[in-house]
């Protein structure tokens, strides 16, 4: 159905796979695809101001699917990315507290996944900043810069630390 550009029907089939054949090796992939479907639908709905409430519900569904995926399949190759996407969905809903908690979990639970972990560190700091935990944001951006100085997000974090007056003040206090 995906190849026929019928994402809605594909999602229905993924639901069937995850419930009817929950122990199938295809079930984890179906869960990821379901979460991706709802995430993309939420992004599409978000563009229309009249559909913002529906978009937020859709992001909530996607977030739950991704979070539950990681709980059910913690050793899966896509576990870190699924948890990261759950945090991104929380950010889309402007639930920055939940986003920071989820993204911190990515940082803590997946130390060997450099790419996803670096992204999680950056967006966790952004979420902390949005909740006005400026010291937490400062610490996370600093940790990102030290852990992964070569990645794009570390460069962006350096920019945030030197261009934001709150971050400059925190650096001076430390």
Quick summary of this structure?
The chain contains 9 helices and no strands.
Structure description:
It is a single chain. The chain has 174 residues and is mainly alpha-helical. It is 78% helix and 0% strand. The protein has helices at 7-20, 27-46, 52-72, 79-92, 96-109, 114-130, 134-147, 152-163, 165-173. The relative contact order is 0.08.
Q: What labels would you give this structure?
A:
single chain, 174 residues, mainly alpha, 0% strand, globular
> Mind summarizing the main beta sheet?
none
Count the DSSP helices.
9
- Approximate shape: globular
The poorly predicted ranges are none
Q: Element order, helices and strands?
A: HHHHHHHHH
CA-CA gap between termini: 56 Å
**Roughly how much helix do the residues carry, as a percent range?**
over 70%
What percentage of the residues does DSSP assign to strands (E)? Answer: under 5%
Mean pLDDT: 89
Structural class: mainly alpha
Number of strands: 0
Rg measurement, Å: 18 Å
Write the layout of secondary structure elements.
Layout: H1 7-20, H2 27-46, H3 52-72, H4 79-92, H5 96-109, H6 114-130, H7 134-147, H8 152-163, H9 165-173
Helix pairs in contact: 1-2, 2-3, 3-4, 4-5, 4-6, 5-6, 6-7, 7-8, 8-9
